[in-house]
Specification:
Helix content: 40-55%
Keywords: NADP, Oxidoreductase, Pantothenate biosynthesis
Pathway: Cofactor biosynthesis; (R)-pantothenate biosynthesis; (R)-pantoate from 3-methyl-2-oxobutanoate: step 2/2
Shape: globular
CATH superfamily of the largest domain: NAD(P)-binding Rossmann-like Domain
Function: Catalyzes the NADPH-dependent reduction of ketopantoate into pantoic acid.
Largest sheet: 8 strands, mixed
GO molecular function: 2-dehydropantoate 2-reductase activity; NADP binding
Structural class: alpha/beta
Oligomer: single chain
Distance between the termini: 42 Å
Strand content: 15-25%
CATH topology of the largest domain: Rossmann fold
CATH architecture of the largest domain: 3-Layer(aba) Sandwich
InterPro entries: 6-PGluconate_DH-like_C_sf (IPR008927), 6PGD_dom2 (IPR013328), ApbA (IPR003710), Ketopantoate_reductase (IPR050838), KPA_reductase (IPR013752), KPR_N (IPR013332), NAD(P)-bd_dom_sf (IPR036291)
Number of strands: 12
Strand order of the largest sheet: 5-2-1-6-7-8-11-12
Number of domains: 2
Radius of gyration: 19 Å
Bound molecules: nicotinamide-adenine-dinucleotide, ketopantoate
């Protein structure tokens, strides 16, 4: 049976997923914050996806969390700091066999969201795809990538995975999703905060090799401490490779700060430091970096959580 994909968050990734699911003929419902957003969406006539400079409009049905229809499959595509509240607003609509896909970057928000729904299967995702909004309900597909999906509690792939095959969304089911999430968190911790503090593109970090290497060494310690030694393997080499491959890009955190938007600091560097602290393990350079980043955000009036 074809399930309806409920997608919460008509932002960059949510819109990118919703448009491709709808294009493949799958039933999709967008969940928008409130009636005002719903009215604006309806006036726009749907979601616009811009790919290779071509715009296509997808008139996907939308509703608010206050709607009463049951939800069997939910893709949560909000920022990490909104995830817990978002699932709480929908908990009453989830069926007994509901499944939730968590697209948030970093770590910590997935556990918080899952704790709200002890009976719901929560599938974690780690994505290297890139998208940004260039207008209300308009998303530009900016970077091809891959999405890994997995469930740390159950290696059995979900039945809807087959449907994804028809959408052209590059994805793979993995039993090692936690290793992927930790590895991405380590990459983000080694690169993103420094690009904010030095106000540079990723390639600008090639001028700070010693600082990057010290952070990678501490991140490696953290990953081993967390039972993720595979995520620590050749971390510094991969960080260097990513810095070179994305040298011309601004990191996602740099873009957030430059545009005066809240960052996901608590779920990236903040999470890394909090976990080390919980294990009573000293990571002086990561802690100092976190302190510098917090001061930087404070000075710009941006949240530090
Ligand atoms: P975004 O800010 O563009 O979109 C999030 C959307 O969720 C917003 O439209 C917001 O209004 C909506 N939202 C939040 N709470 C809601 C609620 N309760 N009800 C309805 N809507 C709600 O964010 P994004 O860039 O799509 O990122 C989503 C997640 O994916 C983040 O964790 C991000 O780090 C990760 N990610 C993004 C990209 C990318 O290229 N954009 C790539 C990889 C990972
Ligand atoms: O994922 C990234 C981001 O900007 O968030 C990269 C490119 C890996 C830099 O950390």
């Amino acid at each position: 049976m074809t399930m309806t994909w409920h997608v919460l968050g008509a932002g960059s990734l949510g819109s990118l997923w919703a448009a491709r699911l709808a294009r493949a003929g799958l039933p999709v419902r967008l969940l928008l914050r409130d009636r005002a957003r719903l009215a604006t969406y309806r006036a726009a006539g749907g979601l616009t996806l811009v790919e290779h400079g071509q715009s296509s409009l997808y008139p996907i049905a939308a509703q608010t969390p206050a709607d009463s229809t049951p939800i069997r499959l939910l893709l949560l595509a909000c920022k990490a700091y909104d995830a817990e509240a978002a699932v709480a607003s929908l908990a009453h609509r989830l069926t007994a066999d509901a499944e939730l896909i968590l697209l948030q970057n970093g770590m910590g928000s997935q556990d918080a969201a899952a704790a709200r729904l002890p009976r719901t299967r929560c599938i974690l995702a780690s994505s290297t795809e890139g998208a940004f909004r260039d207008g209300d309900f308009r998303v530009v597909f900016a970077g091809h990538g891959y999405t890994w999906l997995g469930d740390p509690l159950d290696p059995t792939p979900p039945t809807w995975l087959e449907q994804l095959g028809s959408t052209g969304i590059p994805h793979q089911w993995t039993p090692d999703i936690l290793t992927r999430l930790w590895r991405k968190l380590a990459l983000n911790c080694a690169i993103n905060p420094l690009t904010v503090l030095y106000d540079c593109r990723n390639g600008g970090l090639l001028e700070h090799p010693a600082e990057v290497a010290t952070l990678c060494a501490e991140l490696g310690e953290l990953l081993s401490l967390c039972g993720q030694p595979a995520a620590a393997e050749q971390l510094e080499e991969e960080v260097e490779r990513v810095i070179k491959a994305t040298a011309a890009n601004y990191s996602s955190m740099h873009q957030d700060v430059a545009q005066g938007r809240r960052t996901e600091i608590s779920f990236l560097l903040g999470h890394a430091c909090a976990v080390a602290h919980r294990h009573q393990h000293e990571l002086p350079h990561l802690n100092a970096l976190h302190g510098r980043l917090v001061s930087h955000l404070n000075a710009r009036g941006l949240p530090t959580q």
